[in-house]
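call fold(seq) -> tokens
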Amino acid sequence: MKFHLITLFPEACDAYLSASIIGRARKEKKISIKYQNPRDFVENKWGKVDERPYGGGPGMVMTALPVVKAVQKSLGRMSGRSTSRHGRKAIIVWFSPSGKQFTNKDADALAKYSDVVLVCGRYEGIDERAKKILKTLATVKEFAVGEAVYTGGEVPALAIVDAVTRRLPGVLGKDASVEERRIASSVVYTRPETIMYKKKKYRVPAVLQTGHHANIDKWRTKR
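ret:
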């Protein structure tokens, strides 16, 4: 599975995507991460990718064509809607605070694609015409990741790569490691059984030490 990040700051993404489980998945070739920088597709000598917004307002807006060309570079020549040049399914993800909230179900759906292009905007956003053009090339899904507004699309993109990658066979070792596919609790404990802090003992709940899986699942469900 390939993730293509369209970003002005690939170095901001690669540190996270080279560490821990995601980094191991890359080394084992379960996923690959590719970057395209819109600055590489501008036609001015300054590498300028933003302009003032029409109609006035604060900040700057990323221009459309460098973003479109970066996506085209990622997918190669499109041979058909939602299909890359190698005949595999591809999808483009566009980030917007007003988009659909990204969920585990959405992560499962994205895991079925061979190529996922994540368009990371900056400044006041990307010229809307870029999205209109991209919709003629492939399926475009618009997501919000969390209710906060971020400086750019890189943080949401990293969240999606993480959420999708951990669902791929073999990435976590076994399917049961995907928390939302089993009875899990946000309350967890590990050894030692008892810890002491400022003369007070803190113990692991007795039910977790019984080995009675039905009772343990019932306890987790309540939490």
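The chain has two domains: 2-176, 183-222.
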